[in-house]
Design brief:
It is a single chain. The chain is built from eleven helices and no strands. With 234 residues, it is mainly α.
């Protein structure tokens, strides 16, 4: 778990650095930076979707995940959490990003991708934290940049990093058969599609309830596993 703990700590430290610099930057600059972050987020999302190998799995993952997320009303719960943080830490609203945007953006960007999953599996199966250490350096820099425009919500995404990556490390023995290369590719594809929606929200083009789509990340590898079983039987 040392790699996961260091990764979460890196996000916290990076976010604190970004928040420190944010205080000295005029709002018109932070607003402009947020648009830039939104555009970069869209680009990252588009790049990730190209790693998908099965369009049908993507479609079924998004549809099924959205149904589950909407029934659970995840977006409302995440927003309530963001509002609680906002009141507790007296964050300002205005044109700046909400706490929820920062939390969801950070959580997705820090946890979607092969480096997260493979690194966590390596840590859980062989005690090899090298990939997570490398990811920690990248996340330290990314969180500092993100928190300048997205605020304190990015800092709290460290909790999602801890839970998500920690779960993979602890359950590595059980998850290894499911988290194949194909499954990781589909997780990245589905997650990246959600990241695109997030980027469009940051730019101000849409108001998609992004959090309601998050279960698609869990549905994708399950569908890959089911498809593999069907192929074996056939």
């Amino acid at each position: 778990m040392i790699g996961v703990l260091i990764n979460a700590a890196a996000v916290i430290i990076g976010s604190l650095i970004g928040l420190l610099f944010k205080k000295g930057i005029p709002e018109r600059f932070t607003d402009a930076i947020m648009i830039g972050i939104g555009l970069c987020t869209v680009y990252i999302g588009i790049s990730g979707t190209l790693k998908g190998e099965n369009t049908l799995i993507l479609i079924f993952s998004i549809v099924t995940g959205t149904i589950i997320g909407t029934l659970m009303d995840i977006d409302k719960r995440v927003n309530a959490f963001g509002e609680w943080i906002g009141k507790r830490f007296k964050t300002t609203s205005g044109n700046s990003a909400s706490v929820t945007e920062g939390f969801v953006t950070g959580s997705l960007l820090f946890c979607i991708g092969a480096m997260t999953i493979v690194g966590s599996l390596n840590a859980g199966l062989a005690g090899d934290n090298e990939m997570l250490f490398t990811k920690s350096v990248l996340d330290l820099i990314s969180s500092a940049i993100l928190s300048v425009s997205l605020g304190i919500g990015v800092l709290f995404s460290a909790s999602f990093v801890l839970v998500f990556q920690g779960s993979i490390v602890l359950l590595a023995q059980f998850l290894k058969p499911i988290l194949t290369d194909s499954a990781i590719a589909e997780i990245t594809c589905a997650g990246s599609l959600i990241i695109i929606a997030l980027g469009l929200n940051l730019i101000g083009i849409t108001k998609i309830k992004v959090a309601n789509y998050l279960p698609a990340i869990i549905v994708a590898p399950i569908l890959c596993w089911v498809a593999t079983l069907i192929n074996r039987v056939a």
